[in-house]
Design a protein that fits this description.
The chain is α/β, with parallel strands linked by helices. Helices cover about 40% and strands about 20% of the residues. It contains ten helices and twelve strands. Strand 5, helix 5 and strand 6 form a beta-alpha-beta unit. Helix 4 packs parallel to helix 5, helix 6 packs across helix 10 and helix 8 crosses helix 10. The two termini are about 40 Å apart.
């Protein structure tokens, strides 16, 4: 990687969405330079970017964005003219058990990154041109009960420590735009799914438990609704927002695939039944492994975003429908967990 040539800093690029984005970006823009900094917690792995290390325009640094010295060194060593900030603790259940790491990474880490970017870009005259793209979540808006959808003007109403930490980070990003004139943009997406997601998340957990003939736990009555977005469609949206979104604006990214958790689990089990028929005990379908468990505290009933702004102003729309995306996702995990283990 040419350290004198300008590059994009991607934080948390060894995680699920970040690694998919880097793969997408290096393929679409073969001459672009990507600097990936990731702490490599349990949810991140360099294996998610196998092959990328051979690309001379890609460079990985293991580092923690909450470490001011590490972050300052990045801006000292590299010519960074844009940031796409994925790095975050993102598992709601973990945030309910202990919120401290979520505040450290999601709030403090974002603040340290903003301050370092501001100083560097003021010095080299890029403060109003270099872009800071904050990756957020629809969970900052709270919960929906009926047929409404969150839009970009919906007030934040976070209901768990994870979403509260992301809302706080978003406010910090907005404040640096308003106060210092930084070129910031925020995008909030609905639930992502696809390859390379950590097994603690709902869809890979359903697949993993099914293939291991373990109970598939579904919270409460299973009627909580989420809108699902295939990760490659999200990457395409982020590309458009980073390059063409208006400064100081927020953009919602939705998949248009609302499903209850129980319906999602049932459909995944049906796909698994077709591809990997049950061959153990008295089971006739993976659906028999679905089990209802006690609901978690503050479990939001429904999320759904109105992404009209993104569609109409930047011309984006998802191209992977839910059925095709689920088929691809199940196949990818099946190849990882069945083929590689036999």
């Amino acid at each position: 990687m040419n350290k004198e040539k300008s590059c994009i800093l991607v934080t948390g690029g060894a995680g699920f969405i970040g690694s998919n984005f880097i793969r997408y970006y290096l393929t679409k823009y073969p001459h672009a330079q990507i600097l990936n900094v990731d702490k490599l917690t349990y949810a991140g792995s360099t294996a998610n970017l196998d092959g990328s290390e051979a690309n001379e325009n890609y460079h990985f640094i293991q580092g923690d964005i909450t470490d001011e010295e590490v972050v300052e060194q990045l801006f000292s060593d590299y010519s960074i003219d844009g940031i796409i900030h994925f790095a975050a603790e993102s598992h709601v259940d973990r945030s309910i058990e202990d919120a401290s790491s979520f505040i450290d990474t999601n709030v403090k880490g974002t603040m340290i990154l903003l301050q370092a970017a501001k100083r560097a870009w003021e010095e080299n005259g890029k403060l109003r041109t270099a872009r800071f793209h904050q990756i957020s979540t629809d969970e900052v808006y709270g919960s929906l009960d009926h047929n409404d959808k969150f839009n970009e003007q919906t007030p934040y109403n976070p209901r768990n420590p994870y979403s509260a930490s992301k809302a706080g980070a978003n406010f910090l990003v907005k404040s640096f735009g308003s106060t210092y004139g930084m070129n910031i943009v925020i995008s909030s997406s609905s639930n992502n799914y696809g390859p390379r997601q950590h097994v603690e998340k709902l869809i890979p957990k359903i697949i993993s438990n099914a293939l291991n003939h373990q109970q598939i736990p579904i919270y409460g009555d299973g009627r909580n609704v989420r809108d699902w977005l295939f990760v490659e469609d999200h990457c395409r949206a982020l590309d458009l927002i980073y390059h063409h979104g208006e400064a100081m604006e927020s953009y919602n990214v939705g998949g248009g695939n609302e499903m209850t958790n129980i319906d999602l689990a049932a459909r995944i089990c049906e796909i698994l039944d077709e591809r990997y028929p049950v061959q153990k005990g008295n089971l006739t379908s993976f659906k028999e492994l679905i089990t209802y468990t006690e609901d978690r505290p503050g479990h939001d009933r429904r999320y759904a975003v109105d992404d009209t702004k993104l569609r109409e102003t930047l011309g984006w729309q998802p191209i992977v429908d839910m059925e095709k995306g689920l088929q691809q996702t199940v196949e990818w995990y099946g190849n990882q967990w069945i083929v590689l283990n036999h």
